[in-house]
């Protein structure tokens, strides 16, 4: 698949041949759904449990007399009615981590990239900015016709000037190629890849 390469300001900068095994896969909704669900569930923190009467360190010895004290008979300080006792019907530990076959995760990422390659993919030669200012970057996006939510993916590390300029733009997120994931790719309207990111992603799947 051949696509046009442009500079960050929208000017033409040649063509690039995208690998069809990465950017030409037919998307399947069931695969993308499984991968997105797996990602979001793994982002959830473990629900903390409360300590019940079997979890607290309290004496089990009978305290007080059986009769004559004017109070109810108790034999365990861990009962919920006592200070320092266990919680009655407390929250249980819930771990939301899911497992997903590595082949399915890889296929899902290829499908997400392929869906953007059909509609909403912009390839730029590099993400270096002469004027690393938010206002300047906004002007470049307007010239290039980039609008809505934008995800920018660079090579091994994102250029610091570009990252700082994009930090104040609403709806613009920046990731290195190693951090590319299905959820972030699909939730953005436009995907911008540097030529270095294209090489890293293709090498990631074909290396």
From TrEMBL:
Gene Ontology cellular component annotations, sorted alphabetically: ribonucleoprotein complex; ribosome
Function, as annotated: One of the primary rRNA binding proteins, this protein initially binds near the 5'-end of the 23S rRNA. It is important during the early stages of 50S assembly. It makes multiple contacts with different domains of the 23S rRNA in the assembled 50S subunit and ribosome. Forms part of the polypeptide exit tunnel.
Subunit relationships: Part of the 50S ribosomal subunit.
Signal peptide, first to last residue: none
Family recorded in the similarity comment: Belongs to the universal ribosomal protein uL4 family.
UniProt record, GO biological process: translation
Record has Iron as a keyword: no
Region (Disordered): 43-73
InterPro entries (UniProt xref): Ribosomal_uL4, Ribosomal_uL4-like, Ribosomal_uL4_dom_sf
Top-rank taxon: Bacteria
Biased composition (Basic and acidic residues): 43-56
Protein's name in the database: Large ribosomal subunit protein uL4
GO MF annotation terms: rRNA binding; structural constituent of ribosome
NCBIfam families to which the protein is assigned, alphabetical: rplD_bact
């Amino acid at each position: 698949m051949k696509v046009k390469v442009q500079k960050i300001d929208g000017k033409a900068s040649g063509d690039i041949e995208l690998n069809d095994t990465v950017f030409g896969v037919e998307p399947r909704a069931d695969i993308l759904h499984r991968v997105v669900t797996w990602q979001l569930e793994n982002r959830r923190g473990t629900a903390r449990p409360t300590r019940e009467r079997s979890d607290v360190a309290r004496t089990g010895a009978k305290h007080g007399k059986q009769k004559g004290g004017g109070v109810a008979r108790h034999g365990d300080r861990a009962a919920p009615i006592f200070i320092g006792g266990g919680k009655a019907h407390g929250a249980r530990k819930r771990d939301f981590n899911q497992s997903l076959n590595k082949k399915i995760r890889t296929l899902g990422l290829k499908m997400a990239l392929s869906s953007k390659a059909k509609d909403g993919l912009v390839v730029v030669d590099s993400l270096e900015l002469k004027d690393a200012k938010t206002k300047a970057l906004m002007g470049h996006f307007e010239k290039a016709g980039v609008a809505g939510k934008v995800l920018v993916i660079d090579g091994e590390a994102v250029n610091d000037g570009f990252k700082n300029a994009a930090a104040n733009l609403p709806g613009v997120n920046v990731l290195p190629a190693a951090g590319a994931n299905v959820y972030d790719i699909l939730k953005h309207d436009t995907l911008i890849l540097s030529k270095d990111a294209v090489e890293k992603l293709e090498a990631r799947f074909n290396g």
